[in-house]
Amino acid sequence: MAEWVASQRFRTPSGAELAYVEAGEGSDVVVLLHGFPSTSRLWREVGPALEGSFQVIAPDLLGYGASDQPDNAPLDPRAQASYVGDLIASFEPERLAVVGHDIGGLVAQFLALDGPRIDVLALLDTDAFDLWPIEGLKMLQNAEPEQEEPGFVGDVVDLAFDLGTTKKDALTAEDLQAFREQFARDEPSAKAFFRAVHAIDGIGLAGRDDELAALDVPALLVWGEDDPYVGVEIADRLVDTLARPALVTLPGVGHFTPLEAADVVAPLLEQFLATHIQGRGHEHGPEHAHQTEGPIMVTLERHGPA
Predict the structure, then answer these.
(1) Domain residue extents for the chain
(2) Looking at domain 8-139+202-300, which of 3.30.70.1230, 1.10.10.10, 3.30.365.10, 3.40.50.1820 is its CATH number?
(3) Residue whose C-alpha is closest to residue 66's, from 2, 4, 6, 3
(4) Is-above-0.85 flag for pTM?
(5) 190 phi-psi bin (left φ>0, alpha ψ -120 to 50, beta other)
(6) pLDDT, tens digit (0-9, with 9 covering 90-100), for 231-245
Protein backbone atom coordinates (compact mmCIF):
# COMPACT_ATOMS: atom_id res chain seq x y z
CA MET A 1 0.00 0.00 0.00
CA ALA A 2 1.46 3.34 -1.05
CA GLU A 3 1.87 6.13 1.47
CA TRP A 4 -1.21 8.36 1.60
CA VAL A 5 0.37 11.66 0.55
CA ALA A 6 -0.91 14.34 -1.85
CA SER A 7 2.13 14.20 -4.10
CA GLN A 8 0.48 14.54 -7.53
CA ARG A 9 -0.15 17.98 -9.05
CA PHE A 10 -2.86 19.34 -11.35
CA ARG A 11 -2.88 22.86 -12.75
CA THR A 12 -6.33 24.43 -12.74
CA PRO A 13 -7.48 26.96 -15.36
CA SER A 14 -6.91 29.64 -12.70
CA GLY A 15 -3.19 28.82 -12.89
CA ALA A 16 -3.09 27.53 -9.31
CA GLU A 17 -2.27 23.89 -8.66
CA LEU A 18 -4.17 21.22 -6.76
CA ALA A 19 -2.20 18.57 -4.92
CA TYR A 20 -3.87 15.19 -4.78
CA VAL A 21 -3.47 11.57 -3.78
CA GLU A 22 -3.88 9.05 -6.57
CA ALA A 23 -4.24 5.38 -5.68
CA GLY A 24 -5.61 2.24 -7.29
CA GLU A 25 -6.45 1.88 -10.95
CA GLY A 26 -9.29 1.27 -13.35
CA SER A 27 -12.04 3.19 -15.10
CA ASP A 28 -14.26 3.49 -12.02
CA VAL A 29 -13.14 6.62 -10.18
CA VAL A 30 -13.91 7.59 -6.58
CA VAL A 31 -13.17 11.18 -5.55
CA LEU A 32 -12.74 11.89 -1.82
CA LEU A 33 -13.25 15.51 -0.74
CA HIS A 34 -12.20 16.77 2.68
CA GLY A 35 -13.70 19.69 4.55
CA PHE A 36 -12.57 22.53 6.81
CA PRO A 37 -9.98 22.68 8.33
CA SER A 38 -8.65 19.29 7.19
CA THR A 39 -6.87 18.00 4.09
CA SER A 40 -6.82 14.83 2.01
CA ARG A 41 -5.13 13.25 5.05
CA LEU A 42 -8.65 12.94 6.47
CA TRP A 43 -9.04 9.89 4.19
CA ARG A 44 -5.77 8.16 5.15
CA GLU A 45 -7.66 5.11 6.51
CA VAL A 46 -10.63 5.12 4.13
CA GLY A 47 -8.83 5.72 0.83
CA PRO A 48 -6.55 2.68 0.98
CA ALA A 49 -9.56 0.45 1.66
CA LEU A 50 -11.03 1.55 -1.69
CA GLU A 51 -7.98 1.42 -3.93
CA GLY A 52 -8.21 -2.32 -4.47
CA SER A 53 -11.50 -1.85 -6.32
CA PHE A 54 -11.37 1.69 -7.71
CA GLN A 55 -9.10 4.44 -8.87
CA VAL A 56 -9.14 6.80 -5.91
CA ILE A 57 -8.48 10.53 -6.20
CA ALA A 58 -8.25 12.67 -3.05
CA PRO A 59 -7.34 16.30 -3.68
CA ASP A 60 -6.38 18.95 -1.20
CA LEU A 61 -8.91 21.66 -2.00
CA LEU A 62 -7.37 24.82 -3.38
CA GLY A 63 -6.00 26.85 -0.48
CA TYR A 64 -5.58 23.76 1.72
CA GLY A 65 -2.85 21.26 2.46
CA ALA A 66 -0.20 20.88 -0.22
CA SER A 67 -2.29 22.70 -2.84
CA ASP A 68 -1.47 26.28 -3.73
CA GLN A 69 -2.76 29.00 -1.43
CA PRO A 70 -3.39 31.78 -3.96
CA ASP A 71 -4.47 35.21 -2.80
CA ASN A 72 -6.36 36.00 -6.01
CA ALA A 73 -8.41 32.88 -6.86
CA PRO A 74 -11.93 32.18 -5.60
CA LEU A 75 -12.06 29.46 -2.94
CA ASP A 76 -15.81 29.16 -2.35
CA PRO A 77 -17.39 25.70 -2.71
CA ARG A 78 -18.73 26.51 -6.18
CA ALA A 79 -15.24 27.42 -7.38
CA GLN A 80 -13.78 24.37 -5.65
CA ALA A 81 -16.29 22.22 -7.54
CA SER A 82 -15.07 23.74 -10.79
CA TYR A 83 -11.43 22.97 -9.98
CA VAL A 84 -12.23 19.42 -8.87
CA GLY A 85 -14.42 18.96 -11.94
CA ASP A 86 -11.47 19.80 -14.18
CA LEU A 87 -9.32 17.34 -12.25
CA ILE A 88 -11.96 14.62 -12.64
CA ALA A 89 -12.24 15.27 -16.38
CA SER A 90 -8.52 14.63 -16.78
CA PHE A 91 -9.10 11.02 -15.66
CA GLU A 92 -11.99 10.40 -18.09
CA PRO A 93 -13.87 8.11 -15.68
CA GLU A 94 -16.29 5.52 -17.01
CA ARG A 95 -18.23 5.57 -13.74
CA LEU A 96 -17.82 8.20 -11.04
CA ALA A 97 -18.52 8.37 -7.31
CA VAL A 98 -17.99 11.55 -5.31
CA VAL A 99 -17.63 11.41 -1.53
CA GLY A 100 -17.56 14.58 0.54
CA HIS A 101 -17.11 15.45 4.21
CA ASP A 102 -18.03 18.80 5.77
CA ILE A 103 -17.62 21.51 3.09
CA GLY A 104 -16.30 18.78 0.82
CA GLY A 105 -19.90 17.62 0.86
CA LEU A 106 -20.93 21.04 -0.43
CA VAL A 107 -18.42 20.65 -3.25
CA ALA A 108 -19.82 17.18 -3.93
CA GLN A 109 -23.36 18.55 -4.14
CA PHE A 110 -22.31 21.28 -6.57
CA LEU A 111 -20.57 18.67 -8.70
CA ALA A 112 -23.71 16.52 -8.69
CA LEU A 113 -25.92 19.48 -9.61
CA ASP A 114 -23.71 21.36 -12.05
CA GLY A 115 -20.73 19.20 -12.94
CA PRO A 116 -20.02 15.84 -14.60
CA ARG A 117 -22.41 12.91 -14.48
CA ILE A 118 -22.11 11.25 -11.08
CA ASP A 119 -23.15 7.64 -10.52
CA VAL A 120 -22.97 7.60 -6.71
CA LEU A 121 -22.95 10.38 -4.13
CA ALA A 122 -21.83 10.00 -0.52
CA LEU A 123 -22.07 12.76 2.07
CA LEU A 124 -20.48 12.50 5.51
CA ASP A 125 -21.36 15.08 8.17
CA THR A 126 -21.83 17.70 5.49
CA ASP A 127 -23.36 21.12 5.24
CA ALA A 128 -26.41 21.47 3.00
CA PHE A 129 -29.31 23.68 1.90
CA ASP A 130 -29.14 27.16 3.44
CA LEU A 131 -27.75 25.88 6.75
CA TRP A 132 -24.17 27.08 6.34
CA PRO A 133 -21.77 28.50 7.32
CA ILE A 134 -22.07 27.28 10.89
CA GLU A 135 -21.95 29.76 13.77
CA GLY A 136 -18.31 29.07 14.61
CA LEU A 137 -17.26 30.02 11.09
CA LYS A 138 -19.38 33.16 11.20
CA MET A 139 -17.50 34.18 14.34
CA LEU A 140 -14.18 33.61 12.59
CA GLN A 141 -15.37 35.67 9.63
CA ASN A 142 -15.73 38.56 12.08
CA ALA A 143 -12.24 38.17 13.54
CA GLU A 144 -10.08 41.25 14.00
CA PRO A 145 -7.14 41.82 11.61
CA GLU A 146 -4.62 41.37 14.40
CA GLN A 147 -5.91 37.81 14.90
CA GLU A 148 -4.75 36.79 11.44
CA GLU A 149 -1.48 35.36 12.77
CA PRO A 150 -0.13 31.80 13.16
CA GLY A 151 -0.55 31.46 16.92
CA PHE A 152 -4.24 32.32 16.88
CA VAL A 153 -4.89 30.20 13.79
CA GLY A 154 -3.12 27.20 15.30
CA ASP A 155 -5.24 27.48 18.43
CA VAL A 156 -8.43 27.64 16.34
CA VAL A 157 -7.51 24.54 14.35
CA ASP A 158 -6.64 22.66 17.54
CA LEU A 159 -9.95 23.69 19.08
CA ALA A 160 -11.93 22.70 15.98
CA PHE A 161 -10.65 19.14 16.20
CA ASP A 162 -10.88 18.97 19.98
CA LEU A 163 -14.53 20.06 20.06
CA GLY A 164 -15.46 18.12 16.93
CA THR A 165 -13.96 14.79 17.93
CA THR A 166 -15.52 12.31 20.33
CA LYS A 167 -12.94 9.55 19.84
CA LYS A 168 -9.83 11.54 20.67
CA ASP A 169 -7.38 8.70 20.06
CA ALA A 170 -8.51 8.41 16.42
CA LEU A 171 -6.52 11.52 15.52
CA THR A 172 -2.80 10.99 15.84
CA ALA A 173 -0.34 13.68 16.80
CA GLU A 174 0.84 13.59 13.17
CA ASP A 175 -2.73 14.20 11.94
CA LEU A 176 -3.19 17.20 14.18
CA GLN A 177 0.21 18.60 13.27
CA ALA A 178 -0.53 18.30 9.56
CA PHE A 179 -3.95 19.95 9.85
CA ARG A 180 -2.49 22.70 12.02
CA GLU A 181 0.69 23.27 10.01
CA GLN A 182 -1.09 23.96 6.72
CA PHE A 183 -2.42 27.23 8.14
CA ALA A 184 -0.20 28.06 11.12
CA ARG A 185 3.35 27.66 9.82
CA ASP A 186 3.86 31.36 9.02
CA GLU A 187 2.09 34.66 8.37
CA PRO A 188 1.15 33.88 4.71
CA SER A 189 -0.45 30.56 5.68
CA ALA A 190 -2.40 32.28 8.46
CA LYS A 191 -3.72 34.75 5.87
CA ALA A 192 -4.64 31.74 3.71
CA PHE A 193 -6.63 30.33 6.62
CA PHE A 194 -8.82 33.42 6.73
CA ARG A 195 -9.24 33.43 2.96
CA ALA A 196 -10.57 29.88 3.31
CA VAL A 197 -12.84 30.96 6.19
CA HIS A 198 -14.33 33.87 4.25
CA ALA A 199 -14.86 31.68 1.16
CA ILE A 200 -17.38 29.50 3.01
CA ASP A 201 -20.11 31.95 2.11
CA GLY A 202 -23.39 30.03 2.23
CA ILE A 203 -24.20 30.82 -1.40
CA GLY A 204 -25.47 28.43 -4.01
CA LEU A 205 -27.59 25.64 -2.51
CA ALA A 206 -30.49 27.56 -0.98
CA GLY A 207 -33.68 26.98 -2.94
CA ARG A 208 -32.27 24.06 -4.94
CA ASP A 209 -34.13 21.31 -3.07
CA ASP A 210 -36.07 20.31 -6.19
CA GLU A 211 -32.85 19.94 -8.15
CA LEU A 212 -31.37 17.77 -5.43
CA ALA A 213 -34.54 15.69 -5.40
CA ALA A 214 -34.26 15.19 -9.16
CA LEU A 215 -30.83 13.56 -8.86
CA ASP A 216 -31.51 9.93 -9.69
CA VAL A 217 -28.39 8.54 -8.03
CA PRO A 218 -27.84 6.37 -4.94
CA ALA A 219 -26.79 8.60 -2.05
CA LEU A 220 -25.12 7.31 1.10
CA LEU A 221 -25.34 9.61 4.12
CA VAL A 222 -23.02 8.87 7.07
CA TRP A 223 -23.29 10.92 10.25
CA GLY A 224 -21.73 10.91 13.69
CA GLU A 225 -24.58 11.10 16.19
CA ASP A 226 -22.47 13.35 18.43
CA ASP A 227 -21.48 15.78 15.66
CA PRO A 228 -21.53 19.23 17.35
CA TYR A 229 -21.17 21.16 14.09
CA VAL A 230 -23.52 19.57 11.56
CA GLY A 231 -26.36 17.85 13.41
CA VAL A 232 -28.16 14.70 12.32
CA GLU A 233 -31.25 16.81 11.60
CA ILE A 234 -29.47 17.93 8.40
CA ALA A 235 -29.10 14.28 7.42
CA ASP A 236 -32.82 13.81 8.08
CA ARG A 237 -33.65 16.68 5.76
CA LEU A 238 -31.38 15.21 3.08
CA VAL A 239 -33.18 11.89 3.48
CA ASP A 240 -36.47 13.68 2.89
CA THR A 241 -35.05 15.48 -0.17
CA LEU A 242 -32.86 13.04 -2.08
CA ALA A 243 -34.44 10.46 -4.36
CA ARG A 244 -32.41 7.40 -3.33
CA PRO A 245 -30.89 7.99 0.13
CA ALA A 246 -29.51 5.56 2.69
CA LEU A 247 -28.70 7.04 6.10
CA VAL A 248 -26.16 5.51 8.48
CA THR A 249 -25.75 7.10 11.91
CA LEU A 250 -22.79 6.24 14.11
CA PRO A 251 -23.36 6.30 17.89
CA GLY A 252 -20.61 7.84 19.96
CA VAL A 253 -18.92 9.45 16.94
CA GLY A 254 -18.37 13.16 16.40
CA HIS A 255 -17.84 15.24 13.29
CA PHE A 256 -14.68 13.72 11.81
CA THR A 257 -16.17 10.34 10.90
CA PRO A 258 -13.55 9.29 8.28
CA LEU A 259 -10.95 9.23 11.07
CA GLU A 260 -13.07 8.55 14.16
CA ALA A 261 -14.93 5.60 12.63
CA ALA A 262 -12.68 4.50 9.77
CA ASP A 263 -13.16 0.84 10.68
CA VAL A 264 -16.86 1.25 9.95
CA VAL A 265 -16.82 3.94 7.26
CA ALA A 266 -14.23 2.26 5.02
CA PRO A 267 -15.98 -1.13 4.55
CA LEU A 268 -19.40 0.51 4.47
CA LEU A 269 -18.36 2.91 1.73
CA GLU A 270 -16.53 0.19 -0.21
CA GLN A 271 -19.60 -2.06 -0.17
CA PHE A 272 -22.00 0.75 -1.12
CA LEU A 273 -19.81 1.83 -4.03
CA ALA A 274 -19.19 -1.73 -5.18
CA THR A 275 -22.93 -2.45 -5.15
CA HIS A 276 -24.00 0.68 -6.99
CA ILE A 277 -21.06 1.16 -9.35
CA GLN A 278 -19.84 -2.35 -10.06
CA GLY A 279 -23.01 -4.32 -9.38
CA ARG A 280 -21.31 -6.47 -6.76
CA GLY A 281 -23.58 -8.00 -4.15
CA HIS A 282 -22.86 -8.31 -0.45
CA GLU A 283 -19.85 -10.56 -0.12
CA HIS A 284 -19.08 -12.80 2.82
CA GLY A 285 -16.30 -15.08 3.87
CA PRO A 286 -12.81 -14.59 5.28
CA GLU A 287 -11.46 -12.91 2.15
CA HIS A 288 -14.07 -10.13 2.53
CA ALA A 289 -14.13 -9.84 6.29
CA HIS A 290 -14.00 -6.28 7.60
CA GLN A 291 -11.16 -5.65 9.98
CA THR A 292 -13.28 -4.62 12.92
CA GLU A 293 -13.86 -6.14 16.31
CA GLY A 294 -17.47 -7.01 17.02
CA PRO A 295 -20.56 -6.02 15.04
CA ILE A 296 -20.88 -2.82 13.06
CA MET A 297 -23.72 -0.91 14.69
CA VAL A 298 -25.44 1.42 12.24
CA THR A 299 -28.90 2.83 11.61
CA LEU A 300 -30.14 2.46 8.04
CA GLU A 301 -33.20 4.64 8.40
CA ARG A 302 -34.42 8.08 9.27
CA HIS A 303 -32.97 9.30 12.57
CA GLY A 304 -35.59 10.10 15.16
CA PRO A 305 -39.36 10.26 14.83
CA ALA A 306 -40.92 10.65 11.39
Answers:
(1) 8-139+202-300
(2) 3.40.50.1820
(3) 6
(4) yes
(5) alpha
(6) 999 999 999 999 999
